[in-house]
């Protein structure tokens, strides 16, 4: 065996591994220099060289594993204990866990049979409409309650006069009623303004059309459901305040005031518009958006435009044209209803502006 073969035995990774230990390289290089010009090695020398090489490779392997373990420990992010987090981080983590649990519960409900029945049929919408109309009737025509309250006040006044004491004045509304009324109206008007003039236009001119459609599919049901709830809350608290201050609902004779009647009618109209849009126009609109998007994805480039429409060859497809026209009609009806509801809210804002005393 010549010097090259012994050197290969001593340096099996010399050509491929350039990150060996410096001591190992120095010792191996010294041995190679001493082997130059010598006679062929004996079997005993070869055995000694192999054992020495095995020991050096084992030591290098142990050192490399230790170095890699230390590097991984240094690179791995250490989990910060919850106790060491600040208040904002802890609250954010807790809120994330709460949202995840709510999302899991909602997903479980969506997979149930009852949800499919409620979401794929119109009977639930009819039930909600019936309950809403009954609630409006209770708010607008509390004749029996007003008569009972009037009789009770008359009896109390007669008893006080008989005892010679001054009658107690009617109790005013709770401060919580005022707070609920102001907050509900402000949130309602602000939501309408933001969704109509800020959010929709900003997203349409900033996102690809398909991304904008996905966002609107999430926002539309929430927007009209929340607005209908806020509108009903504003109406109920307004009627409560009017009855407490001697308004049209204070007696059984219904001494109507024209200004209050206009406000009540506008709030009722606003509530009905937002409720009907949520129950009867939003579901078909979402279905049409889904159908349009699926067809547009079959054509390259369609749906990726920002702030404009470019339907390309789909304008020649009769089926797509029918879906697109149906979408435009439903969307236009929703837009008109939204503007009408916003006009009703603006009318009530004008009424409030005339009542503010600073």
Automatic annotation (TrEMBL):
<dbReference type="Pfam" id="PF13664">
    <property type="entry name" value="DUF4149"/>
</dbReference>
<keyword id="KW-0812">Transmembrane</keyword>
<feature type="transmembrane region" description="Helical">
    <location>
        <begin position="218"/>
        <end position="240"/>
    </location>
</feature>
<keyword id="KW-0472">Membrane</keyword>
<feature type="transmembrane region" description="Helical">
    <location>
        <begin position="124"/>
        <end position="141"/>
    </location>
</feature>
<protein>
    <recommendedName>
        <fullName>TMEM205-like domain-containing protein</fullName>
    </recommendedName>
</protein>
<keyword id="KW-1133">Transmembrane helix</keyword>
<dbReference type="GO" id="GO:0016020">
    <property type="term" value="C:membrane"/>
</dbReference>
<feature type="region of interest" description="Disordered">
    <location>
        <begin position="151"/>
        <end position="171"/>
    </location>
</feature>
<feature type="transmembrane region" description="Helical">
    <location>
        <begin position="179"/>
        <end position="206"/>
    </location>
</feature>
<feature type="transmembrane region" description="Helical">
    <location>
        <begin position="260"/>
        <end position="281"/>
    </location>
</feature>
<feature type="compositionally biased region" description="Basic and acidic residues">
    <location>
        <begin position="1"/>
        <end position="16"/>
    </location>
</feature>
<feature type="region of interest" description="Disordered">
    <location>
        <begin position="1"/>
        <end position="22"/>
    </location>
</feature>
<feature type="domain" description="TMEM205-like">
    <location>
        <begin position="184"/>
        <end position="288"/>
    </location>
</feature>
<dbReference type="InterPro" id="IPR053009">
    <property type="entry name" value="Xanthocillin_Biosynth-Assoc"/>
</dbReference>
<dbReference type="InterPro" id="IPR025423">
    <property type="entry name" value="TMEM205-like"/>
</dbReference>
């Amino acid at each position: 065996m010549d010097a090259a073969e012994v050197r290969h035995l001593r340096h099996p990774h010399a050509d491929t591994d350039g990150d060996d230990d410096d001591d190992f390289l120095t010792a191996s290089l010294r041995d190679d220099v001493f082997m130059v010009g010598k006679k062929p090695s004996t079997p005993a020398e070869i055995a000694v060289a192999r054992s020495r090489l095995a020991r050096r490779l084992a030591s290098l392997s142990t050192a490399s594993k230790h170095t890699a373990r230390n590097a991984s420990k240094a690179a791995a992010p250490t989990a910060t204990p919850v106790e060491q987090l600040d208040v904002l981080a802890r609250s954010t983590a807790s809120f994330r866990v709460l949202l995840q649990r709510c999302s899991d519960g909602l997903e479980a409900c969506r997979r149930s049979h009852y949800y499919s029945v409620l979401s794929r049929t119109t009977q639930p919408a009819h039930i909600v409409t019936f309950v809403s109309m009954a609630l409006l009737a209770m708010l607008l025509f509390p004749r029996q309650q007003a008569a009972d309250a009037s009789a009770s006040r008359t009896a109390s006044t007669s008893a006080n006069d008989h005892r010679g004491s001054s009658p107690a004045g009617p109790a005013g509304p709770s401060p919580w009623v005022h707070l609920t009324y102001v907050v509900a109206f402000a949130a309602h008007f602000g939501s309408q303004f933001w969704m109509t003039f800020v959010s929709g236009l900003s997203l349409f001119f900033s996102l690809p059309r398909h991304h904008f459609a996905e966002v609107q599919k999430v926002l539309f049901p929430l927007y009209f459901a929340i607005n209908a709830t806020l509108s009903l809350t504003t109406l109920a608290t307004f009627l409560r305040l009017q009855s407490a201050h001697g308004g049209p609902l204070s007696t059984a004779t219904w001494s109507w005031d024209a200004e209050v009647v206009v406000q009540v009618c506008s709030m009722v109209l606003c509530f009905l518009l937002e409720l009907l849009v949520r129950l009867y126009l939003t579901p078909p609109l979402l279905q049409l958006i889904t159908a349009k998007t699926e067809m547009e994805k079959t054509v390259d480039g369609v749906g990726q435009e920002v702030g404009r429409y470019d339907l390309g060859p789909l304008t020649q497809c009769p089926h797509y044209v029918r879906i697109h026209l149906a979408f435009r009609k439903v969307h236009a009806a929703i837009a008109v209803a939204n503007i009408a509801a916003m006009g009703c809210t603006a009318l009530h804002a004008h009424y409030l502006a005339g009542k503010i005393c600073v």
